[in-house]
User: What shape does this take?
Amino acid sequence: QVQLVESGGGLVQAGGSLELSCAASGRTFSSRTMGWFRQAPGKDREYVAGIFRSGVITDYADSVKARFTISRDNAKNTVYLQMKGLKPEDTAVYYCAAQKPMYSGNYGYAPAYEYWGQGTQVTVSS
Assistant: This one.
């Protein structure tokens, strides 16, 4: 069982920045591909970014490319999402998710993720 706890959300003005963190429990973090997803009110869950086990490979949705950066610290069992140039359309609940150990599923395919956090709210005002 893995628990994922997101933090760092909040209210920010358009053009501002936030950094989200996701702390994972257990000893398998370094063997899991991690991802960030988001869900805005009335909309489907949307893929944001993914990062391979070692951290050397990252992937982004087109909507956040060049504005968001995903990273991880395997020594701290934590994955991060640095968000810059925030827009009102980035407003959503942001979730981190973990794939099965040693599994390399499509970053943007939600069913490939085994565990999900409870989410953290990000609100961007115009």
